[in-house]
Amino acid sequence: MSVNFSLEGKVALVTGASYGIGFAIASGMAKAGATIVFNDIKQELVDKGIVAYKEAGIDAHGYVCNVCDEAGVNAMVETIAKEVGPIDILVNNAGIIKRIPMCDMTAEEFRQVIDVDLNAPFIVSKAVIPSMIERGHGKIINICSMMSELGRETVSAYAAAKGGLKMLTRNICSEYGKYNIQCNGLGPGYIETPQTAPLRERQPDGSRHPFDSFIVAKTPAERWLKPEELAGPAVFLASEASNAVNGHILYVDGGILAYIGKQPE
Ligand code: NAP
Ligand code: GCO
């Protein structure tokens, strides 16, 4: 029995993929044969993303769309179907974080994080599922987090969203698995991207950021992970090789969730 990791002939939409984790996942999917479609809020970032994909040898299709805007998302999905083809693979990657102590966070700030990190995956998934049902197959990959399982100071909204995203993943699996739609989560550990750059900034005296040292001590590999290390697991979840995997959160964390942490010397 051949195991099919190929994404040839598939159209993959990766949201918020001008750079960062989304860009790395989309690039990996392109190497596996997928046609890449991505969106970003700003035209300038979409343009930069298209250049970056081209430099990587990928002819990606870019669209300006705020994933929180249901009408805009529905219009984008329709346009993609006409201009590129119906979406076979959706990666709900777009996300934000606000690192604010909960009691200092306004309800509006909390809502903004929930809107992008949880409501938007609902909106975009809802936009693509009908076509997946019609065509008898579909793959949805929700980008979860260590905060789908763990909390920490200052990330209450983000953890609530990512915990909810884990359960949205399981519910899409439950409700649409009968249509041969697989919905799984990918849970990155701590990845070197712009989103975590503030946690890795050198201190004024040139020493490592305390959080940087903390994460290195919490990761068995004793390092931050690279965005490119998420591509293989994403291709697996997007391919026919994972057709029997559904409602699963695949943690790509270097072992953080398995490890109590390095004993301080
Ligand atoms: P990032 O560098 O901040 O990139 C996030 C991307 O999402 C950007 O392209 C951003 O576009 C886009 N975006 C944000 N809000 C959007 C909206 N409303 N509509 C459309 N696009 C939007 O983040 P990242 O580190 O690559 O993270 C990507 C995903 O992985 C997120 O869901 C994050 O929560 C998750 N994650 C990250 C890590 C990590 O350690 N980095 C670990 C676990 C999970 P703009 O630049 O225009 O805002
Ligand atoms: C933080 C980080 C994390 C990562 C990621 C970990 O402030 O703790 O931003 O939340 O983004 O989600 O998996």
Keywords:
alpha/beta, 14% strand, 265 residues, binds NADP nicotinamide-adenine-dinucleotide phosphate, 7 strands, single chain, binds D-gluconic acid, seven-stranded parallel sheet
Topology:
Layout lengths: L10 E5 L4 H12 L3 E6 L2 H13 L5 E4 L5 H14 L5 E4 L14 H29 L2 E6 L12 H21 L4 E8 L8 H4 L9 H9 L12 H8 L10 E4 L13
Parallel strand pairs: 1-2, 1-4, 2-3, 4-5, 5-6, 6-7
The chain binds NADP nicotinamide-adenine-dinucleotide phosphate and D-gluconic acid.
β-sheet strand percentage = 5-15%
**End-to-end distance:** 50 Å
Overall radius of gyration:
18 Å
Q: What small molecules does the structure contain?
A: NADP nicotinamide-adenine-dinucleotide phosphate, D-gluconic acid
Let me know the number of strands.
7
Strand numbers in spatial order across the main sheet:
3-2-1-4-5-6-7
The averaged pLDDT comes out at: 97
Number of helices: 8
Task: Determine the fraction of residues in helical runs and give it as a percent range.
Answer: 40-55%
Main sheet?
7 strands, parallel
Architecture overview:
The chain is α/β, with parallel strands linked by helices and 265 residues long. Helices cover 42% and strands 14% of the residues. The protein is built from eight helices and seven strands, in the order βαβαβαβαβαβαααβ. It has helices spanning 20-31, 43-55, 70-83, 107-135, 156-176, 197-200, 210-218, 231-238, and strands at 11-15, 35-40, 61-64, 89-92, 138-143, 181-188, 249-252. It has a seven-stranded parallel β-sheet, with helices on both faces. The protein binds NADP nicotinamide-adenine-dinucleotide phosphate and D-gluconic acid. NADP nicotinamide-adenine-dinucleotide phosphate is lined by residues 15-16, 18-22, 39-42, 45, 66-68, 93-96, 116, 143, 145, 188, 190-191, 193-196.
